[in-house]
Amino acid sequence: MALWDQLKARVADMSAQTKTQVGKFKSKEFANASMAMCALIAAADGTVDAEEKRKTGAFIQSNDVLSVFEASELLEKFNWYAGKLQSDYEFGKVEAIATIGKLRSKPDQARAVIQVGIIIGGADGNFDKDEQQAVREACNAVGINPAEFDL
Question: Considering 73, 77, 116, 141, which has the largest number of Cβ atoms within 10 A of its Cβ?
Answer without folding.
Answer: 116
